[in-house]
Amino acid sequence: MSPRLLVLGSWDMRESALKSWAELGLDVTLVDRTASARPGPAAQRIDEDVWDSTLGAAPSSLPGRLAASADGVVTLAEFCVLTAARAAQDAGLPGPGVAAASVARDKLAIRRTLAAAGLPGPRFAEVRDERDVAAFYDAPDAGDAVLKPADSAGSTAVLRVSSAAQAAAALPEVLKWSFSGTAILEELIPGREFSVEGIVQAGETTVAAVIEKSTTAEGFVEFRHVLPARLRPEESAALIQATKDVVRAIGVQTS
Known about the structure:
Low-confidence stretches: none
Oligomer: single chain
Strand order of the largest sheet: 3-2-1-4
């Protein structure tokens, strides 16, 4: 019998992953609100919404029942990270862990976790109303900042703001994209942007690539990736070490 892989949630242009898994001989079950319309091979498709915001953590849920007979659980959608982590943990399968997944899906939780671990980062604040915005901009060095939903994804409703008035005016629209009704204001750190791609196994991070990203001036939407990133060796090493520190602080695991 082929190994059974449960895929909880997918996103556009993910057919390459399904194709790769099929070539490896995996028996793939894809669960997504539009699974039947997703391109790429899959042995079974179930049209069901498995976003984190729609499901509980009970093993009796659809993801939990399917995971019980699977050999592995993954997701191809950021909005389903917690769902997949819960299903894997309940079934005793490898995964990042529910605690780490919860932090990873909450930008405020990430900032607080990294600050508690002593890792450097921008000044930030939880924002729910204009009073929170005013408090952030009361700081003497307050200037350009980034306003975004605390728990969305894909650069959705991410805005650059330069004053309390501008942030307050944008806040209602930003909050529409937050499941918890919470936004985060972060000090803007200008400069080039990079991502570090890799895999975590048994608590150890193995880096596959350091990528330089180009984004739009407004909204920070990525439109180009440069691989390998144009960095000096010591700069790449610093980014890789920072990534490992973040993974350790969040507590990502594989069992």
